[in-house]
Amino acid sequence: MKRKIDENLILAAVFGEDSSSSKQEIEVDERLKLSEFHVNLERRYVSKSYSSRILTNAQWNKQMHFLLFNNFTYAKSYVGHKNFKDYCNLSPGQYTDVCESLEDKGFICREKISEKPGCSPKDTRTITTSYLAPVYNPDSNTLIKQKILNTSFNTNIHKIHYFEVPKEGFDEILKDKRLKIIHKKLMFKLYRFNKYQLFRGVDPNFIYRENGTIHMSYRLLDDLRLSRREAEEILKLLERYGYFFWNSVNIYEETIDTESRLRVLDEELDMNREVEVITPTYQLKREVIKWFI
Predict the structure, then answer these.
(1) Do the beta carbons of residue 63 and residue 45 sit within 8 Å?
(2) Which whole-number Å values give the CA distances from 76 to 66, 71, 130, 153, in the listed order?
């Protein structure tokens, strides 16, 4: 499907600059859903260090909910139980317990604020401050609180390992009550290695399919504590629900020093072979545009 995109938007998406008002046509896969905005998700949330002993299912869902609505400039959000009902069924008491637990563990801080001085408690609202994820200490099986505001600036200056998930995709995954926590973690893990500009989807060094056989990195299985069969079953489910599709690409194996890596090419070479990579349905618009520049 062809979509007309103003070159101003292309340059703004890639370089943050403006240019002439001329237009060009680029062909965008009609299966893709393009997103302007993203959520910064720290790798810890989809790693084995954050097991159910650290965050229960309800706590993990609620923390994701806070991150979905977090303002990554100020680390603030205003969403509460009423909005969270669309994502997880908790009673008001259960919701309060979950938030208090997240606060005790150092993920967030909550405070009541009023719009006007002297307002009654009914006229106040809760503002939530999000912190960078606590560090897990495996020796003591405890969390080390950081109390550092979860902003884009702090994420970069403290060299926090994170990845970007398109905001609309993040919202849809989190809201889908057909999915279990492990399903959501696996889908987010795919976004961890997703780079449309380079691979047209997920890095084939992490996972790809060739002649009907799925080849996946041990990191996927180890990090999520899954068997190969369990991972393949979850992938089938996520594909059926429309969260990703398989995309045919040409790859070749490049060896630098003693390390070999798979590379995706635009053109066919004698050394190429065709495989399929996973392409998450939701993609950041700027990443898709970069592929055509």
Answers:
(1) yes
(2) 9, 5, 6, 14
> Residues in the chain with pLDDT < 70?
1-26, 114-123, 267-271, 291-293
DSSP 50: S
d(CA 138, CA 135): 10
- The four Cα atoms 168, 173, 178, 183 give a dihedral, to 10 degrees, of 160
Q: Where in the chain is the domain with CATH 1.10.10?
A: 38-176
Q: What CATH architecture applies to the domain 38-176?
A: Orthogonal Bundle (1.10)
The pLDDT score that the predictor gives to residue 115 is 64
d(Cα 284, Cα 293) in Å, to the nearest integer?
15
CB 88 within 8 A of CB 68: no
User: H or E segment at 113?
Assistant: strand 108-114
Q: Please tell me the predicted confidence (pLDDT) of residue 22.
A: 47
Give the Cα separation of 201 and 191 in Å (integer): 9
CA angle 149, 177, 30 (to 5 degrees): 85
pTM over 0.90? The answer is: no
The alpha-helical segments, DSSP class H, found in the chain are 7-15, 57-68, 81-84, 92-104, 152-157, 167-175, 181-192, 196-199, 218-224, 228-240, 285-291
36-52: burial string, b at 16+ Cβ within 10 Å, e else: eebbbbbbbbbbeebee
SS (H, E, C) 148-205: CECCHHHHHHCCCCEEEEEHHHHHHHHHCCCCCHHHHHHHHHHHHCEEHHHHCEECCC
Q: Are strands 23-27 and 2-6 parallel, antiparallel or unpaired?
A: antiparallel
- Please enumerate in sequence order all residues whose Cβ is within 8 A of that of 127, keeping only pairs 6 or more positions apart, or say none: 76, 77, 78, 110, 111, 112, 113
The whole-angstrom separation of Cα 29 and Cα 256 is: 33
- Give the pLDDT of residue 122: 64
